[in-house]
Amino acid sequence: MLLENKVAIVYGAGGAMGGAVARAFAAEGATVHLAGRTLANLEKVAADIGAAVGSITVLDAYDVQAVNDHVASIEGPIDVVFNGVSIRVKQDIALVDMDVEDFVRPVEDAARTNFITSTAVARRMIAQRSGVIILLSSSAARESGFEMGGFSLACASIECLTRSMAGEVGKYGVRVVALRPNFTPDTHPEWDIPEDGLDHLLERTALGRLPQKAEVARTAAFAASDHAGPMTGAVLNLSCGSIVD
């Protein structure tokens, strides 16, 4: 197993992507500490991964003290952290018609939650001289999309943080990577998407399809593993070819 005897924290573990990553980490042998805002959602994920649960914590990842206290409560080494915390986004409005507050909000949210969770755990990882920090971006960071509001800039900021932090903590044996998936339809089963509703996205991919959340989660597990040991400061392109690096 890729993550046998590893200890991981997943922030936003009650969400679709955070939950998928938590399940993937557990399937690969990790003990997973689940943190998020909604207890019921965390408990559903915990039921799926069973004995692999290290703890379940209800917290607001936008709160620096709450995250610092959570990290301090975990004994022993922390090998992996994944941030799947959602950000507030308003879309389907042209930029020229958008209020500045609505545009800036997702950028501030992305910067705040990723900075708080990453630095809180990085301090522990620096002391132990090992660890992997995984952030979640999206193909919006590189697309010339339309009516995305501040989401594109928010994702680009996450990728910038990945590079900046990797450069600072690498000398301590700590790696930082980001995942850049395209839209993953199965993260929103509640959406009533028409049969041809995603054609405009499919047409822009080399593979003619969109990624699945399980694929993104398994990639996160690989990136967290020793098999990816030389990888840091990297953004893993999971866009099915909508972005070609």
UniProtKB/TrEMBL annotation:
Keywords: Oxidoreductase
Pfam hit, one: adh_short_C2
GO molecular function, one term: oxidoreductase activity
Highest taxon above the source species: Bacteria
Family listed: Belongs to the short-chain dehydrogenases/reductases (SDR) family.
Protein name, entry field: SDR family oxidoreductase
Organism encoding this protein: Kribbella pittospori
